[in-house]
Amino acid sequence: MFHKPAIAALVSATLLASGLAVARSTPAHPPHEGTSVSVPADDIRFFGSGVKTEVGELRAGPAYGDLQHGRHGTFIRMPAGFVSPAHIHTQDYYAVVIEGIGANGPVGAPSKPLPVGSYWFQRGEEAHVTACLSTSDCLFFIVQPGSFDYVPAK
What we know:
single chain; 6-stranded antiparallel beta sheet; two-stranded antiparallel sheet; 1 helix; about 15% helix
């Protein structure tokens, strides 16, 4: 038979051990990625992407990371009336429409207008067409876990 102090000690030891087990099994937060930063829109520096049609070239403005070498968040400026040829990207990406009316969908599918605030996810290695349906340029923000590529679809 246990005495009350023995039971209390046993309960305390069990709770303490449980707490330590929980503390040890809780993953630490990931390392921070650098200093906090705020960048006004006018300070974003765009450069030519090399992806062109008769209405102009896609321009890229880095927010974080490096779209040519790995994980990144990048602004993409697309000229009004731009319709990409069917293409793929090796990596998945997520996009949000910041300005204009965009569209992104499977090859041959009707364009689904995506106004400001809209979102799409594009699976990697899946042929698609991206367009700017508005009469003014479109601005998209994309996030991709690896480097950006643009491969014409077969």
